[in-house]
Amino acid sequence: MTEEIIIAGFGGQGVLSMGKILAYSGMLQNQEVSWMPSYGPEMRGGTANVTVILSDESISSPIINKFDTAIILNQQSLDKFESAVKPGGTLIYDGNGITRHPERTDISIYRVDAAEEAANMESAKIFNMIVLGGYLKVKPVVELENVIRGLEKSLPERHHALIPLNEKAIKRGMEIIRTVHTA
User: Fold this and answer.
1) Cα 58 vs. chain centroid, distance in angstroms?
2) Residues 49-97: pLDDT tens digits?
3) 2-181 — its CATH code?
4) What are the DSSP calls for 83-130, one per residue?
5) C-beta of residue 177 within 8 angstroms of C-beta of residue 110
6) pTM summary value
7) Is 150's pLDDT higher than 80?
8) Do residues 134 and 177 touch, judged by C-beta distance below 8 A?
9) Ranges of each domain in the chain
C-alpha cells in the first residue's frame, strides 16, 4: 500500500499540521513516511501545501507530481491541484469559499464542510482535524489510535489538553463527509 497525498490551502488553516500528524501516525504504524511542506513567506493568508507519502515499502522520492488523494481547502488550491489527482484517485474539499467546484468525472470527489462545522463546534482551531476525519473515513490509511498518538507527538505538551477536542473533531469529520461523485 502506498498513498500519495497533497494537502493544500491557506497558511493558518493547519495544512502543515495535518500533514505532520498523518506522517507521525504512519510512523507509529511502522510505515515508510515522507513529509514535504511548501509555503510562501506569508505566515497566514498565503498558500501552503504539504506532500505526504505513506507506504509499506521504501519511498524512492518525496517529489511527485500526481497524487492518489488531494485534500483541498481553498479555491486557489483547487484550481492548482485538481488536475494533479491520478485518474481513479480521490479529491476531498471544504466548500467554504469555493466558487468553482471540482469538475472531473474520472476521480471520486467528497465534500466535508469543516469550516461550518468548526464554527458550530465553537472552535476554528479544529477545522483541520474535521477535514482529517473526513479523509480517514474515505481512506483509513492510519488507525485513529495512531492519529491520537500522532497528535501527542506533534502538539506541544502545553496543548495536550486540546487532544480530546481534536479527537471529537476527527470523529465529527468522519460523520459529516459526503460523496459528491464516485469514479
Assistant:
1) 22
2) 999 999 999 998 888 999 999 999 999 999 999 999 999 999 999 999 8
3) 3.40.920.10
4) GGEEEEEEEEE--TT-SS----SSSEEEE--HHHHHHHTT-GGGHHHH
5) yes
6) 0.93
7) yes
8) yes
9) 2-181
